[in-house]
Amino acid sequence: MKSNELRKSFLKFFKDRDHSIVTSMSLIPRDDPSLLFTSAGMVQFKPLWTGAVELPYRRAASVQKCLRTSDLQNVGRTRRHLTFFEMLGNFSFGDYFKEEAIIWAWEYLTEVLAIEKSKLSVSVYEDDDEAYDIWHKKIGLKKELIFRLGDEHNFWGPAGNSGPCGPCSEIFYDLGEKFACGQKACAPGCDCDRYPEIWNLVFPQFDQTVSGERLPLKNRGVDTGMGFERLASVLQKKDSNFHTDLFAPIIEEIVKHTKKKYGTDPETDVAINVLADHTRALVFAIGDGIIPSNEERGYVLRRLLRRAVRVSRNLGVEEAFLYKLVPRTIAEYRVAYPELSERREEITLVIKSEEERFLTTLEKGLIQLEEIFKAKKKVTGEDAFRLYDTYGFPVELTTEIARERNITVDEKGFMEMLQEAREMSKAKAKFIPRGEWKVIKEGVGSFVGYDKTKVETSVLRYNEYDHTIELVLEESPFYAEAGGQVGDHGNIKGKDFTVAVLDTYWYQGMIVCHCKVDSGKFNPGPVYAEVDLQKRKESARAHTATHLLHAALRKTLGEHARQEGSFVEPGRFRFDFTHFKPLSEDEIAVIENIVNEKVMAALPVEKFSTSLDEAKKMGAMAIFGEKYGERVRVVKIDDFSIELCGGIHLNNTGEIGLFKIVSQESAAAGIRRIEAVVGMQLFSEMRKKYMQVHELAQIFGSEKDLIKKVNDFQQRFRDLEKMHQENLARLARIETEDLVRKMKKAGSRVFSIKLDKYPAQTMREAADHIRERSPDSVGIIYQTVKGKINYLICAGDNINKKYPANRLMKDISKILGGGGGGKNHLAEGGGGDPRKIKEAVAFLEKTVSK
């Protein structure tokens, strides 16, 4: 069965059993800060089991995009490990439980897909007699085909640090003796390849708290996950995921570009498998709006891409080539994921730009590695991490090159530093509650902030820890951070207490206010909640301005200039968009003029709800990677802009006041970033600029011809600076000429001279003068700066072949405690101890005297 048919078959089977078919969520989890990526089919359904939200359905089925990097070292080497994969799943929320889940799983595998029953075996949690009896008595499996396993194998979850979890039952497929490990105890649950798990039936019946306590789950149910690629390999009778129709076309493309044969050399096969896997992961992740960067998700993506580049170099590919695999990869998924085709050009260009950037830093990293090899016989963990962090240099490549030189690499030290960086990245996940939720009243609450900014309401649940309170209100006027717009601030007053709302965010389907107690002692009950209107107004100004900017960018630069992300806060915003070169000053001026014309026109800003299909017919732009329901909110600004958006906006563009771009930079390969200010924030910055001009005018006498006066002053300053440098050069020449006379008189070939307060260029010119006047000499020119020493090693033309300055620099630097390098005739160093200069000179005298 082909993969496209398999997806349809699975969804149809469960649709016929009254399951709602739910589309895959983005690889970016919407409201679960404990996860970097969507790692399982159940992630988008977590709130439905806990009872945090009202159930939209009791049964669901999906094909979910997933990304995991926990087994990265095994990807490509084993038949089953992948980074990106699809997960087939059916789910029950307080509806059917173990019996139906097991019966339907067996029916789908053996009757619909016609998998041989003799090839299947199962496992159950060690004390789950209910599941064991269903398999044995209802399905009729022999006892020797049912294995009881412990927590490691048969207790699943939670995804993240809290949430639904429970015992599970796994279904295994027997690939046969040739894939066995040879041990007598080899059976389902073994780490070898003989028994791949193809379906995991999880029975969520506990809600695990952050502290690890397992409470009864309100809507116990079913969460199944079946690896799509593994199932395809079984049905297509392939012994590896990489041999299925999901990978074969990509592998064909890799073989075409690398001129390597697949299936003849194990190491070549591993490399090709890695390239195929990582290309898929990159295409889907970038398609969902994740851009390679040095932070969080982007950091993981950059690591995948650079690992793939390293592997391609091992196959003899020296130039960027991963991007050439993108069209074929997208073509293979055009039926299941048609939205990828819409972004094919952007995905291709992002990967190409990122590849080219890394190939440049890779060469720089190789140069740095050579310097490390010359300086010492071991690459420390700090060295390896600096190469990785600064130049994106994979530690595997560092180790491989070092091994060729018989140099060791402190991989343990590297991994410790890498783990520390990962923990810092995970720690950036915003407001993960650490205490326990206390439920006052069931429900998730509702957002009323589009229409109200103050409301009498009550607390549904709260979480109190470390002088912090997280509150969920029955009716909340506070906007929770989403779509790039920061959450609302404000205050909540109750009987004898007031708490300040410092931020508002989504957590498992709930709008949570992050609070600190201002006065009194918090006591749940009726409260009065009020939004900080000034902050909200300034955020709304910035958010409405992003829509105007987006439209102006597309009008000025072209339709390719699509939004890739934003961060909107009171009075200012950051806006990322697809474009592959910096904006010119003329382009910035045109864009600013367009936006400000729309601001001055005071255009009406309409906000309304409609169906997704109707919004698309209107031409509303959607942010790629966002998941939209059947009903969506549309923000329309006259005939200039129309977008799907759930954020807080103004009623007309005139309220923005004024708009100004203050900076632009590269956010990532192929992505530009604009920062802009509006409203009172812009007024404040304009006032600062005015005061600076006013102060300059006072210095220069008046504002008339101020720019000319400043330019004239700068020119006079440059002329004086030039005269000063020339005088310094004359003084240095006098000092060095005096030094040469003394050397000749004493018959000495070794010298040292201190030239404090001279610029580096003057010191170099002094060295050249000494070499010219005394070609048989060698010595040190130095100066002290803030307790440290900067120094040059100078060797005349008649002596620098025997005593090259760059070689002497290494020995001198060891004495002084600094470091440096250079050429035979001149080397530069710094960072040493001035008190050891006599010792360094003595070393030179001893060396030359030999």
Overview features:
850 residues; alpha+beta; 11-stranded mixed beta sheet; 6-stranded antiparallel β-barrel; 23 helices; 40% helix; globular
Number of strands: 34
Mean pLDDT: 90
Rg for CA atoms: 34 Å
Report strand %. Answer: 15-25%
Q: Count of DSSP helices?
A: 23
Taking pLDDT < 50 over at least 5 consecutive residues as the criterion, the unreliable ranges are none
Return the structural class: alpha+beta
Major sheet: 11 strands, mixed
Q: Any idea what the shape is?
A: globular
- Measured between the Cα atoms of the first and last residue, the distance is 82 Å
Q: Report the helical percentage.
A: 25-40%
Short description:
This protein is of the alpha+beta class.
Helix-strand layout with pairing:
Elements: H1 3-15, E1 20-21, H2 46-50, E2 59-67, E3 84-93, H3 98-112, E4 120-125, H4 129-139, E5 146-149, H5 151-154, E6 155-156, E7 163-173, E8 197-202, E9 206-208, E10 214-216, E11 221-227, H6 228-235, H7 248-258, H8 266-287, H9 296-314, H10 326-332, H11 339-342, H12 344-375, E12 378-379, H13 381-391, H14 395-404, E13 408-409, H15 411-427, E14 438-439, E15 446-447, E16 454-465, E17 468-473, E18 475-476, E19 490-494, E20 497-507, E21 510-520, E22 526-531, H16 533-557, E23 563-569, E24 572-578, H17 585-600, E25 605-611, H18 612-618, E26 631-637, E27 641-644, E28 659-668, E29 671-678, H19 679-700, H20 706-746, E30 750-754, H21 760-773, E31 778-785, E32 788-795, H22 805-816, E33 819-822, E34 826-832, H23 837-849
Parallel strand pairs: 1-2, 4-5, 12-13, 15-18, 30-31
Antiparallel strand pairs: 2-3, 3-11, 4-7, 6-7, 7-8, 7-9, 8-11, 9-10, 14-16, 16-17, 16-22, 17-21, 19-20, 19-22, 20-21, 23-24, 24-29, 25-26, 26-27, 28-29, 31-32, 32-34, 33-34
Helix pairs in contact: 3-4, 7-8, 8-9, 8-12, 9-12, 12-13, 13-15, 16-17, 20-21, 22-23
